[in-house]
């Protein structure tokens, strides 16, 4: 285990949807999970394993039935989603989800920069901030640095997703959640967005939890891998042990027969 301070602590997180149905099973079943500051954790698991429910609980989109959540030592179990927005940010699978289409790139960035704070975005659009935004956009390597006043509605799905990523990191959150954020993109664009992700995470030393169905990506990315099944964490490896994993060994170990998880891209 690392000696770094803990960024995320989930204790006994439990959530059951539709409890009154006889066939209902917990989506989260007493999940204990601690993530150290600076870790890049990859979360895998078959359909219905509980991955999105875990991310939803961390982001505050759902309330757990039982259990507690802390980020950077602060108890956030009952904190409203907008009140945890300065602590935890998220990039969704859908490129349309993370940006405001009717606003320009610079307006979106100004809002993201003030996430969790109350100032009005427009007041921040000074030449000084525009210079900073150009630098940030350059990091994406998508040529957006010269299009600050372009409406986001005119961007491609990949460009919007890269902008969503930037918007999720510029406020320097304690925890970045990536929810299959490259899965809806074509392979080439997915690689570029993943490259921008790795640069953004490393340059800002962000603590990250990423869900993916792509086993090759899961093996190649991050320093810790966890697998969920039926609402529980069933596998948890880090560092050298993670680095020695192969797609074949994981498939054999967990008898994975989910085609999506075996996709190479
Ligand atoms: N809002 C909801 N209402 C009812 N049931 C839900 C809801 N969200 C999730 N579930 C159920 O909880 C279980 C876990 O779902 P979850 O979406 O967390 O799995 P997942 O690992 O993200 O799966 P996938 O890879 O298919 O997205 C599933 O049985 C799912 O049907």
Automatic annotation (TrEMBL):
Membrane topology: Peripheral membrane protein
Record flagged with keyword Transport: yes
Residue ranges annotated for the ABC transporter domain, each copy included: 8-255
Main location, first listed in the record: membrane
InterPro entries the record matches: AAA+_ATPase, ABC_transporter-like_ATP-bd, ABC_transporter-like_CS, ABC_transporter_ATP-bind, P-loop_NTPase
SMART domains: AAA (SM00382)
Molecular function terms, GO-annotated: ATP binding
Location in the cell: Cell membrane
Keyword list, A-Z: ATP-binding, Cell membrane, Membrane, Nucleotide-binding, Transport
Superkingdom of the source species: Bacteria
Family: Belongs to the ABC transporter superfamily.
Protein name, per record: ABC transport system ATP-binding protein
Organism: Ottowia thiooxydans
């Amino acid at each position: 285990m690392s000696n770094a301070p803990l960024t995320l602590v989930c204790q006994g997180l439990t959530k059951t949807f539709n409890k009154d149905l006889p066939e209902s099973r917990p989506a989260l079943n007493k999940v204990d999970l601690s993530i150290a500051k600076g870790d890049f954790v990859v979360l895998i698991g078959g359909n219905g394993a509980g991955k999105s429910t875990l991310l939803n609980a961390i982001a505050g989109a759902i309330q757990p039935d039982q259990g507690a959540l802390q980020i950077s030592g602060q108890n956030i179990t009952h904190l409203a989603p907008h009140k945890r927005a300065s602590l935890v940010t998220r990039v969704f699978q859908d490129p349309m989800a993370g940006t405001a289409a009717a606003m320009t790139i610079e307006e979106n960035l100004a809002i993201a920069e003030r996430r969790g704070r109350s100032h009005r975005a427009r007041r921040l659009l000074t030449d000084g901030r525009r210079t900073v935004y150009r630098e940030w956009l350059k990091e994406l390597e998508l040529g957006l640095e010269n299009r600050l006043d372009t409406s986001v509605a005119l961007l491609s799905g990949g460009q919007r997703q890269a902008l969503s990523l930037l918007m999720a990191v510029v406020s320097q959150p304690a925890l970045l959640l990536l929810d299959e954020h490259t899965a809806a993109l074509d392979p080439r664009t997915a690689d570029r967005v993943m490259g921008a992700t790795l640069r953004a995470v490393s340059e800002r030393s962000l603590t990250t939890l990423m869900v993916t169905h792509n086993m090759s990506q899961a093996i190649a990315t991050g320093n810790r891998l966890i697998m969920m099944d039926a609402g529980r964490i069933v596998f948890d490896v880090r560092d050298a042990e993670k680095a020695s994993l192969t797609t074949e060994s994981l498939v054999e170990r967990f008898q994975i027969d989910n085609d999506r998880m075996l996709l190479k891209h």
